Amino acid sequence: MAAAISVATIRNTAYNVIKTQEVRRIVNGDFSMEEFTRFEKDLLRASQAVPSTLGGGQHGHAWLVKHEADYKSLTGDDSLVQHDIANPGLTPTIGSTDSHAVIALKMATLIADNDAYHTQEGVKAGLRDLIIGRVSAVAIQELDDN
Taking burial as the number of CB atoms within 10 A of a residue's CB, which of 67, 79, 111, 123 is the most buried? Predict the structure, then answer.
């Protein structure tokens, strides 16, 4: 039960940090490239408001709003690639011959993996709601139309 409370708290904290970020609105489907660029920069800044040790550890969750090439350009390191983290689950893989030290290490790793995953999910939800709240439906349809 403590893990469920912990992951919910982590997710909600990340979500709330993202939702408090200033992102300029795109009011209609007839937006300029300058408006879109400002919006994109605001969204990037918002994604970086929640720290992460992933992807080089210096750019928050920027990988959630940048394409791989743009992320490499942002970090200045072609070797840095970060993708969404898969849900690690709540059960460690403990073998019958694992020592207490190995079990403790596996538990600590699982906790850290869950923290990173649920932080990412809170950031994703916050970014999604920021976009939906700051971009009119007409503009979203326009963005979707090639």
Answer: 123
Alpha helix (H) residue ranges in the chain = 2-19, 33-47, 68-75, 100-134, 137-144
Are 128 and 15 in contact by the 8 Å Cβ rule? The answer is no
Inter-residue contact 11 to 122 (CB < 8 Å): yes
Cβ(64)–Cβ(120) under 8 Å?
A: yes
Q: In sequence order, which residues have a C-beta less than 8 Å from that of residue 61 and are 6 or more positions away?
A: 47, 48, 50, 52, 119, 120, 123
Quote the DSSP letter at residue 63.
G
SS3 24: coil
Question: Which tens digit of pLDDT belongs to each residue from 73-124?
Answer: 998 888 888 889 999 998 989 999 999 999 999 999 999 999 999 999 999 9
Write down the pTM of the prediction.
0.86
